Amino acid sequence: MPDLSGIVKAYDIRGVVGEQLDADLVRDFGAAFALLIKPEAPAVVIGHDMRDSSPGLAEAFADGVTSQGLDVVSIGLASTDQLYFASGSLNLPGAMFTASHNPAKYNGIKMCRAGASPVGQDTGLAEIRDTVEQGVPGFEGQRGTASERDVLADYAAYLRNLVDLSGSRPLKIVVDAGNGMGGHTVPTVFDGLPIDVVPMYFELDGSFPNHEANPLDPANIVDLQAKVREVGADAGVAFDGDADRCFIVDERGEPVSPSAITALVAVRELAKDPGGTIIHNLITSKGVPEIVAEHGGKPVRTRVGHSFIKAEMARTGAIFGGEHSAHYYFRDFWRADTGMLAALHVLAALGEQNGPLSELTSAYSRYAASGEINSTVDDQVAKMMAVKDAFGARSGVEIDELDGLTVQLPGGAWFNLRPSNTEPLLRLNVEAANAEAVQGLVDEVLAIIRS
User: Fold this and answer.
1) Which residue range or ranges hold the Alpha-D-phosphohexomutase alpha/beta/alpha domain (predicted)?
2) Integer CA distances (angstroms), 447 to 54, 388, 425, 437, in order
3) Comparing C-alpha atoms, which of 78, 92, 96, 80 is closest to residue 151?
4) Which CATH code for domain 151-366?
5) CATH 3.30.310.50 in the chain, residue ranges
6) In 378-397, which positions are buried (b, 16+ CB within 10 angstroms) versus exposed (e)?
């Protein structure tokens, strides 16, 4: 039996095309997915990003689905949140072909049940892997049919209906699509809004000729920062490759932390639904639950990852959730993540008042943070144990292992160290009262990790 553990991750499938992932294997994944959801739905909606390998892999997956007697609705080129919209609005399970921000040689599959309900290791992905490893059983009934449907305009209209920008002052916004799917969705979503969009890298190109489509890496927003300053824009927005994440810079070109965006959007959602529950993962700033509570909301802490966030939102009935990685989840969007909707909220908040974005977001930024620092390591477990041993012996230190290692220090500083679900990395996030304290703690932890 093949061992697929290297590509079947915690909440998606991802690997190097031609080495770990090819059409035959993807066809089997499609058939296995069809077997999983056949009792629940008559068809599967499929979308794909702009990578060269995506159309062929999506077609192979569709072939696997129809081979098991289910129909396929193809929406073609799409952002991941556009696929979630299709799954939610059509009430069908879905599959999105993308490797998000990973380099061009990668591709992958994000799957969901009807209503954009997540499929992760504990909710079907392990079962799909087992079925493919053991051999997909044949189906002797009639094959399913395949059809096409364009949902882009409906997706854009749905988002605009959730955030009212009609009263906004005119704004000039630079948008860096990173040659990813933001170049496909932004023109339609922003059409008719009081927003002058200055486009950057809107050409769809899965080789990412200008920079990696990962806006969390500071190197990848340098062009955006420069353009915002050059044209005197009110803000800048960067999307990742599949455009389900957005990253914001203010009018000075300075990054606005995803935690501040989480708090800002949470306050807006709580204004519509007082007393609602807000989900935040354990790496967001401790300012997020503080602000949520101050505005009458109920903050709930959870582990990192979209399938975990969505499951917790379903359990608690949460109205909104945010992650440090710039994923933002909305009850009104089938609890799915959509960077586009978060961006519209930020722009609406900006346009409702006359001050600059830096002033608006300063109220939501209470502490200094390191951002995510990655270290390539040979033995993730051993390095994490070394850090745990070093800090666990100290007086007043609290440690929990909800997701990786979270260490709370006396005085309020804290850090989280967790292994990547997709790469051989340890990810470090540090927060403290000021930048000097952050740097000191970063240096201390990295000295152990990289020794």
Assistant:
1) 8-134, 154-253, 261-367
2) 41, 13, 15, 16
3) 78
4) 3.40.120.10
5) 368-449
6) eebeebbeebbeebeeeeee
Structure tokens at 387: 């850090």
The pLDDT tens digits along the chain (451 residues) read: 678 999 998 889 999 999 999 999 999 999 999 999 999 999 999 999 999 999 999 999 999 999 999 999 999 999 999 999 999 999 999 999 999 989 999 999 999 999 999 898 989 999 999 999 999 999 999 999 999 999 999 999 999 999 999 999 999 999 999 999 999 999 999 999 999 999 999 999 999 999 999 998 899 999 999 999 999 999 999 999 999 999 999 999 999 999 999 999 999 999 999 999 999 999 999 999 999 999 999 999 998 877 788 889 999 999 999 998 899 999 999 999 999 999 999 999 999 999 999 999 999 999 999 988 999 998 999 999 999 999 999 999 999 999 999 999 999 999 999 998 667 899 999 999 999 999 999 999 999 999 8
CA distance 429 to 371: 6
220 vs 225: CA distance, rounded Å: 10
The one-letter code for the residue type at 139 is: F
Catalytic positions? 100
Is this model's pTM higher than 0.90 or not?
A: yes
Where are the CATH 3.40.120.10 domain residues in the chain?
A: 13-150, 151-366
Tokens 């807006």 correspond to 268
Q: Cα–Cα distance between 63 and 107 in angstroms, integer? A: 18
- The Cα–Cα gap between 327 and 305 comes to 9
Please tell me the CATH code under which domain 368-449 is placed.
Answer: 3.30.310.50
Structure-token pair, residue 103: 């380099």
Question: How distant, in Å, are the alpha carbons of 212, 240, 329 from that of 259?
Answer: 22, 17, 13
